[in-house]
C-alpha cells in the first residue's frame, strides 16, 4: 500500500524541488503542480507532488497521521 503525505516545499529548481516533513527532506518532481511556490504544502506520492494543499488542510492531515502513529517526530 502507498501513502501520499503532505510536505512543505522548501526549494524549487525548474520542475524539481525539495520538500520537507519534520526532519526529513526529499527531492520531488513538481511537474504536476506548476503554480507551486516555496512554503506551499503539497501532497507527495511516489516522489511527485500531485496537488497543493492549504496550510489548514495540511495541518489537519498531519494531525490525523500523528494520531495513528505515522507522524514525522
Describe this structure in words.
It is a single chain. This protein has one helix and five strands. With 73 residues, it is of the alpha+beta class. The protein has a single domain, classed as SH3 type barrels (Roll). It has a five-stranded antiparallel sheet with strand order 3-2-1-4-5. Strand 4 and strand 5 form a beta hairpin. The longest helix has 13 residues. It starts with a strand and ends in a 6-residue tail after the last helix.
Write the layout of secondary structure elements.
Layout lengths: L4 E9 L2 E6 L2 E6 L11 E5 L2 E6 L1 H13 L6
Antiparallel strand pairs: 1-2, 1-4, 2-3, 4-5
List the keywords.
73 residues; alpha+beta; SH3 type barrels; 5 strands; 18% helix
What is the structure about, briefly put?
With 73 residues, the chain is of the alpha+beta class. The chain is built from one helix and five strands, in the order E-E-E-E-E-H.
CATH architecture: Roll
Radius of gyration (CA) equals: 11 Å
- CATH fold-level name: SH3 type barrels
Q: Biggest sheet: strands, sense, closure?
A: 5 strands, antiparallel
Stretches with pLDDT under 50, minimum 5 residues: none
The N- and C-terminal alpha carbons lie at a distance of: 22 Å
Determine the number of helices (DSSP H or I, runs of at least 4 residues): 1
* Arithmetic mean of pLDDT: 91
Principal-axes shape call: globular
Q: What is the name of the CATH class?
A: Mainly Beta
**Strand element count:** 5
Amino acid at each position: 500500500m502507498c501513502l501520499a503525505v503532505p510536505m512543505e516545499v522548501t526549494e524549487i529548481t525548474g520542475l524539481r524541488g525539495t520538500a520537507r516533513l519534520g526532519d526529513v527532506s526529499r527531492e520531488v518532481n513538481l511537474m504536476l503542480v506548476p503554480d507551486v511556490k516555496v512554503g506551499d504544502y503539497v501532497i507527495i506520492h511516489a516522489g511527485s507532488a500531485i496537488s497543493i494543499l492549504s496550510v489548514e488542510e495540511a495541518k489537519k492531515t498531519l494531525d490525523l497521521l500523528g494520531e495513528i502513529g505515522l507522524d514525522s517526530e
